[in-house]
Amino acid sequence: MKNNFIDKKLNTVIEELKEHNLVKNSLFSYVAGSIFEGFGNQKSDIDIFIIYDVNYNDLISKLRFSENDKNANLTINQNILTYNFFVKSYRIDCEIYSLFTIEKYIEKLNKIVTFQEDNLISGQLEYKMIDFLHRIKYGMPIRNAGIFNTYKSKIDYTKISYYQVVSCTEQISGLLEDIEGALQVNDNGTVFFMLRKLVYYVAFSFLATKGETNPSEKWLYLKFKRYAIENDDFEFFDKYLELQSIAFVDSNQESFCRETMDFYQKISLLTQKFIYESQKNT
Question: The pTM is what?
Answer without folding.
Answer: 0.88
